[in-house]
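Protocol step 4 of 6.
Sequence for Amino acid permease (Glacieibacterium arshaanense) entered exactly as in the expression construct, tag removed. Do not edit the line below.
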Amino acid sequence: MNLRIKSLDAILATAEKKSLKRSLGAFQLTMLGIGGIIGTGIFVLTAEAAQVAGPGMLVSFVIAAVVCGLAALCYAELAAMVPVAGSAYTYSYATFGEVLAWVVGWALVLEYAVAGAAVAVGWSGYAVGVLEHLVGIHIPPEFANGPYAGGIINLPAVIIVGLVTWLLVVGTKESATVNAVLVVVKVSALVAFIALSVPAIQSEKFIPFAPLGVNGMIGAAAIIFFAFVGFDAVSTAAEETINPQRNVPIGLIGSLVICTIFYLLVGAGAIGSYGAQPLLDAAGVGYIPGSKEMADACSAATDSPLVCSNEALAHVLRSIGHPAVGNMLGLAAGFALPSVVLMMLFAQTRVFFVMSRDGLLPTKLSTVHPKYGTPHVVTIMTGVAVMIAAAFFPVGQLASVSNGGTLCAFFFVALAVMTLRRTDPNRKRVFSTPAVWIVGPLAAAGCLMLFAFLTLTAQLVFFGWGAIGLVFYFFYGRSRSNVARGIMEVAEIDAPVSPIERVLKP
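Step 5 output, structure tokens:
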């Protein structure tokens, strides 16, 4: 069976002949990673995680962080070894062949684009609240919510996606600079939350710790997993990174470690200072977040529980005696969450760019703007699609669907790093995954576990999206890919010198 594997030599040569401008350093990559990670997950989805796990969501944070950390170690080796755009798609192409590479690339579309839409919807909720409380401007519900909440269109979400799309067309370095500023804003907001909530922690707020058991904590991990998505997007910027063999691993692992520490402190502060017990029905079963039954239970509640809030962290601060700071945190989230939209769209366009460069998508998509040096065609197309999703769908559903694509990509990255250790052991590895035969299997198993705990709807959407992608591949990409047409940028020969050195050195 012909797997149509594109060698790493050919991948590197293609990137050199039609590459993006290298302009990002270790600091910018770490800021991009933090910008991609800290966002809707911690500012909005904390309430949904609390409804599924209660105070046990602290364990959920740890579970999600461990799975992401294992995947990050695998990503770091591959991204440093193959510093080109495409992330898990590129690694799968060189390891498992064209069909599985397409499946992974198609899953990345689900991850990044849908995640960008989810963050935009989360931002909309904070923006509407800020305008209402601080400025006195009331946005009619019809234009602040999609049909799922009785509205017509989520107009603020559409507007922010449009602005981010324009910024990405202007240029990568400019986007990264703006993102770094926004990262400082939202990190400052989380620091303020931690400083005010942690001293107010009361031990009794943690009892019962796991009201819905172990399954609840793992289920919450499958939700809060979205809060960690974003670090992998750093690897898609490898082709635009100065000294990627050093800087990409720093950006990947550094951003994940920093964010994990923040999340645990924020989670402990929210639970201990205000409480995070789920709402249960008469049978003692927790309501499903985002369901009509959950909405009715929240309407009937008299004590404004955390699980009912659309702006969880700001709600906590207002409730424990710091309304002004709570409003400022909402304002900071309103300013800062667009950085996550930016990171998701940035990563999405780079995946499309490299798939187009390989011939699996129309070559027009890989066109680089003559002035800005960015893939403007695919950036605009992605922006329009994300606008549509953000306009009409709720944040919880979007986040769960995005997690399905993310877990698929992480799973294949874990398999790829182990496979390449066997098939290409002599290739130069500037960064090597430690204990790869332990880390790799654990990362893959962790992804499968969390996928099993996603909602049935999210799982069905994932498989349905994959089926659509395979139809497109067999009708278009299979016959037009560069590998199918025998287009190789470098000869397929054995050589004792490092393929990376052979491609990158003049």
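Step 6, annotate. Residues 490-506 have pLDDT under 50 and may be disordered.
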